[in-house]
Specification:
6-stranded parallel β-sheet
Amino acid sequence: MTTRAIAVRYGDPSAVELQTIPDAAPGEGRVAIAVRAAGVNPSDAKGIAGAWGRDETKLPLPIGSEVAGVVTELGPGVTDVAIGDEVIAFRVRGGFADRVVTAAANVFAKPPALSFEEASGLLLVGATAWHLLDATGVAAGDCVLVHGASGSVGRVATQLAIVRGATVVGTASERNADAVRALGAAWVPYGDGLAARVRAIWPDGADVALDTVGTDEAVDTSVELVADRGRIATISAFRRGGEAGIRLLGGGPGADPGSAVRAAARQPLVDLAGAGRLRVPVARTFPLTEAAAAIELASSGHPGGKIVIVP
């Protein structure tokens, strides 16, 4: 039997309950994974809230899109993985569970250097950050401004930009200054005078701005500092970003979902993490019985790293 967390209604995380269902056998091209850790993301709370529609026929709603675990069963036609392999899987459906079945195409070998907890939080934020860099053409020599550099996506975007040979200035609150500097970026605090503080480092402004926080300040500062609005991208300020004529990425209205880019980024992200060039720190773990609390913390905006469920 499989135990999983599901939303019994649309609303807030209080709608989350545990459910036990018979194990599903993997079909053609699919694998079963014993979940050792599942990454929690703000998008999980958005799905429960009905941000992508409130179709009552889809209830109860499985939750969780990324996991790490061990392959336990193979469906017909699967040859790239074997029973007993330690793997990362993204994008899955219903990852907040002790067992999940997904397409083999979503499964990647877990690098030995990563714990299951670290591995489970890598690919959603990683693919989002990769899309930001890809859409804005970040390359060696660029000066890249990352808004929210201490957040999960911001941390990865900062590291990926540095891997590409760019120089990064990251915005964050004062309590996260050391975390930003530890990534190899210069830190500047939020608040009035942000553009001037960035210009004190880069008098000619920035080449690229990546917004992961969605504030008017982030958009306005980016437009002031970056000459080419095609090299400014946001994953959350969809209304303000649309008005400013910058790139909108992700699941918001009028945004480019970048599905092909994000899917293609998964293996390179795993490779970088395995080589120690990309880290996604885990802030806290929760048991499956406390999935609602994990979702609440992940969507608070201040988790301090990845939140992970350990079934």
